[in-house]
Specification:
Layout lengths: L2 H15 L3 H8 L3 H9 L7 H18 L38 E2 L12 H10 L6 E4 L6 H12 L7 E5 L10 H15 L16 E5 L5 H14 L4 E5 L10 E4 L16 H13 L9 H10 L4 H10 L5 H6 L16 H4 L1 H10 L3 H10 L6 E2 H5 L12 H10 L4 E3 L5 E3 L2 H9 L3
Parallel strand pairs: 1-3, 2-5, 2-6, 3-4, 4-5
Antiparallel strand pairs: 7-9, 8-9
Helix pairs in contact: 1-4, 1-5, 2-4, 4-5, 5-6, 9-10, 9-11, 14-18, 15-17
């Protein structure tokens, strides 16, 4: 989570809970001056201890506000020799219980711990409002689906009618056959809602959380479905995961960022990306000890851009390839061919996930992305405006195509007084490896 997201999260959650800066200071033991400087952006590199105290206080307040919001907190242990020695624990990591079948329909959350997403989880849980969808966007492979499902599992007890997960990854793309896309999506929705009274005359307040997952290739269909559902059931809660947000539907957006590879976070004293890698390695090769190779682990996670799917694919590859090979290879993407059993095809490997996102672009957008992938790793708006990037002759059009690529989450933006842009590392490697 970058500084802008941290600022947004602190202000949004504090106001949703109803606290002043003074009250947050009282509950977190962080000074009012520090909180004010964090929220206004004066502090550029906040202390890890201060961030943990603030997030912990906000998380606890969300729990206290609704006693049934979260299941009992569980503190997980680190595999011996795999992670650094644990320092004094900060705010506890909370894990949702696996929901029962009667109150959960559709794709189910994974049961293992989610790493490095405490602030994102807090935002989803407190920002979700009836009648106004919350859209989780972010690069391919960043972990939008996992965040949505984990959030839904934590929130399950809020909803009398439970959670319904509408998974659309296998639906025909609208660009191929709009009629088929609409029909398939509607059938999937009707199947999941079978048995529910959806007549607003007899059931005006459907108390349900609907998770619409992988909506980017049928975004117009999803927009129509969501509008129709909210017209009938204005109290419905909806979370949408998509590379891009639907048009014509008032919604709140939350960009899911790659896991941090620089700032240690949580109880183990290493960056979240490195912790996720070590946990996944332990699950597939439990006798492998990486305790003395943490700098190499962090470097690999940095090369992978902090993408959760890339990190998990690399961890599985450790069963057959040593760590130094993954770190030293000039191009790491071809090595990450290991696929997870089950799930959607474009979720099984990083390569497929990147190809899925790239395939949603039209030819003009692809030309621009290929051009931007040859820019410096971080570039400015002035770099974009200097010459055409989409094959045209007018640089003035660059801002339009840049906005489109940002909307598709294939270009990331660091927002501040000066915007900074970047093509995610693994997308850059993928684009530069395919024929023009």
């Amino acid at each position: 989570m970058d500084n802008n997201q941290l600022r947004s999260m602190l202000v949004t959650q504090r106001k949703m809970i109803g606290w002043s800066q003074e009250q947050l200071a009282e509950h977190s033991t962080v000074s009012v001056r520090t909180i004010r400087n964090l929220e206004t952006g004066v502090i550029k590199n906040p202390r890890r201890s201060s961030v943990e105290l603030l997030v912990g206080a906000l998380f606890s307040a969300a729990t206290d506000r609704d006693a049934t919001l979260l299941s009992q907190a569980v503190q997980s242990g680190a595999p011996a020799g795999l992670l650094p020695a644990r320092p004094e624990p900060g705010p506890p990591t909370r894990v949702a219980e696996l929901p029962d079948n009667a109150r959960w329909r559709g794709l189910r959350p994974k049961t293992d711990i989610t790493v490095g997403r405490r602030a994102d989880l807090l935002h989803v849980m407190t920002a979700l409002r009836p009648g106004r969808p919350l859209v989780l966007t972010g690069p391919a492979g960043v972990g939008k689906t996992r965040l949505a499902l984990d959030s839904a599992a934590h929130l399950l007890d809020r909803f009398r009618d439970g959670v319904v997960v509408l998974e659309l990854g296998s639906v025909t793309p609208e660009g191929v056959d709009p009629a088929a896309a609409s029909a398939q999506a509607q059938r999937a929705l009707d199947t999941l809602f079978r048995g529910f009274d959806r007549d607003p005359r007899t059931n005006p307040e459907l108390q349900m959380l609907l998770v619409v997952d992988n909506a980017e290739h049928v975004i117009d269909t999803v927009a129509r479905q969501v509008r129709a559902l909210l017209e009938q059931h204005p109290a419905l809660h909806i979370v949408i995961t998509s590379l891009r947000a639907p048009a014509g539907v008032p919604a709140d957006l939350w960009e899911v960022s790659p896991l941090s590879v620089d700032r240690p976070d949580g109880p183990y004293g290493c960056p979240p990306a490195a912790e996720l890698f070590c946990r996944r390695v332990h699950s597939v090769a439990p006798t492998l000890d990486l305790g003395d190779q943490m700098p190499q682990v962090v470097e690999l996670c940095r090369r992978l851009g902090g993408l959760a799917l890339a990190i998990e694919n690399a961890a599985v590859r450790m069963r057959s390839v040593p760590l130094h090979v993954l770190v030293d290879e000039y191009r790491v993407l071809p090595i990450l061919g290991q696929e997870e059993v089950g799930g959607l095809s474009h979720h099984r490997s990083l390569h497929r996930s990147l190809a899925w996102a790239y395939g949603l672009l039209d030819e003009r957008q692809r030309r621009a992305l290929r051009r931007l992938s040859r820019f410096p790793e971080e570039f400015s708006i002035d770099d974009v405006r200097q010459q055409p990037v989409d094959g045209g002759r007018e640089p003035s059009r660059n801002l339009d195509v840049l906005a489109e690529l940002v909307d598709f989450s294939v270009v990331q933006v660091k927002r501040g007084h000066q915007y900074a842009y970047r093509v995610p590392r693994m997308m850059r490697e993928y684009v530069n490896a395919i024929p023009a």
